[in-house]
Amino acid sequence: MAGCGEDFPRSPMKRHQALRWAAGVMGSRLEAEVLLAYILAVDRAQLLASLPDELPVAAWQRFRSLVARRTAGWPLQYLTGRQEFMSLEFVVSPAVLIPRPDTEVLVEEALRLLPEEGNPLVVDVGSGSGAIGLSLAWYCPGCLVVATDSSRVALRVARLNAYRLSLSDRIKFFHTDLLEAPRRQNLRPQLVVSNPPYIPSGQIEKLPREVQFEPRPALDGGPDGLAVYRELLPQAAEILRPGGYLAVEVGWNQAAAVTDLVRAEKVFGTSWIKKDLAGRDRVVVARKE
């Protein structure tokens, strides 16, 4: 594979020449197309229809820079600043975890739990980009969402996404740890939903190189990966209204341990586990009596 500073065509050049070079460097034609389309502010179809066109010098310089960062391990989503989730486009940055398809299982189950009528209150804990809470607001037009995060920078990203989706009037953001602010506000939600950090601390360095670029506080779940659940579950048990639900994403081998923590809270009656598309345990749900 050619190095990022080697064997590249000289400007001026055609778009197809730049793509051929980048695909060779990155080992992915699709990613090369995504990056070049992003730089040119066109969609892939428009890019493919314009491959014989000349690539401006400034665009070529930006393209080379992004290809270099991608080969260094930067996630594609951080380079384009975008990620699709639940068929919606979200702005992402290194301040927030990149929304993943597995988490759509959590959102879909949460939507199933919410009543079709009325204005149920949902609290999204550890909101990050806002992908979970904003998806719930989008697909459940009657619900009101409160989103919490301990990172002010992450909340700025989430507020931007709320604005872009025209949902700013349906969601309220709190800079707080877990459910502390909703507790002080005496909120009584119908649903508490969260994708908390659940990677054991000792395993983070073993994760794929791309994941190392994501914010560690959004990944690190303490020595056994369960530290945040131990804090979150008692708080959720306190503020949920009777008949309300807690829904949390879990690691593939953590559902039994999280279910035990749920049962230890006593106030939760029925609980169940939802699997992801790969057949792995992904979501734990519990109903407050």
Model description:
By secondary structure, this protein is α/β, with parallel strands linked by helices. It has two domains: 13-72; 82-288, Rossmann fold. The chain has helices at residues 15-26, 29-40, 44-49, 57-71, 76-80, 101-113, 131-139, 152-164, 180-184, 227-239, 255-264; strands at residues 13-14, 54-55, 82-85, 88-91, 121-125, 144-149, 171-175, 191-194, 245-249, 268-275, 281-288. The protein has a seven-stranded mixed β-sheet with strand order 7-6-5-8-9-11-10, sandwiched between helices. Strands 1-2 form a two-stranded antiparallel ribbon. The N and C termini lie far apart (59 Å). The model has no long low-confidence stretch (mean pLDDT 95).
Fold blueprint:
Blueprint: E1 13-14, H1 15-26, H2 29-40, H3 44-49, E2 54-55, H4 57-71, H5 76-80, E3 82-85, E4 88-91, H6 101-113, E5 121-125, H7 131-139, E6 144-149, H8 152-164, E7 171-175, H9 180-184, E8 191-194, H10 227-239, E9 245-249, H11 255-264, E10 268-275, E11 281-288
Parallel strand pairs: 5-6, 5-8, 6-7, 8-9
Antiparallel strand pairs: 1-2, 3-4, 9-11, 10-11
Helix pairs in contact: 1-2, 1-4, 2-4, 6-7
Percent of sequence in beta strands:
15-25%
Overall body shape: elongated
Structural class: alpha/beta
So what's the CATH class of the largest domain?
A: Alpha Beta
Could you give the order of the helices and strands?
EHHHEHHEEHEHEHEHEHEHEE
CATH superfamily of the largest domain: Vaccinia Virus protein VP39
**Rg, Å, rounded:** 21 Å
CATH architecture of the largest domain: 3-Layer(aba) Sandwich
Q: How many distinct beta strands?
A: 11
CATH topology of the largest domain: Rossmann fold
Mean pLDDT: 95
For the sheet with most strands, the description reads:
7 strands, mixed
Q: Helix share of residues?
A: 25-40%
Total domains: 2
